[in-house]
Amino acid sequence: MDALEPLTERDIFLDVGAGIGNVLAQVALATKVSKCIGVEVRGELCSLGTERMLRNVDMYPFLRKVFLKSADVRNLLLSAQPPTCDATIIFANNFLFEETAKILVARELSDMTNVRIIAATSLFLS
Fold it and tell me: Which keywords does the record carry (predicted)?
């Protein structure tokens, strides 16, 4: 998190491969970003993450900034569709992505004009 500082209210955080949203929750609670958006292909993980966020939102109101979407990144236009196209900070947990998904995500992220920082768990092209 320290490497991403300073994050402000103008920042929108996007987590590609978000799982149940642990990184999203951490960013929402520890930074000033206005939104934390997660995309996860496995619907059951999105449901579980959303349920856990909602269960804890009264105790941790900043969790209201978190939005999880169940979708396959190969079928999304991250760079053209709100709210993902507005992201300024991106974390791509792409270690287990198929090569075609990595290529498509790399292409989409390169077209995102507002992005300041991209962090990824593996190279996009090998």
Answer: Chromatin regulator, Methyltransferase, Nucleus, S-adenosyl-L-methionine, Transferase
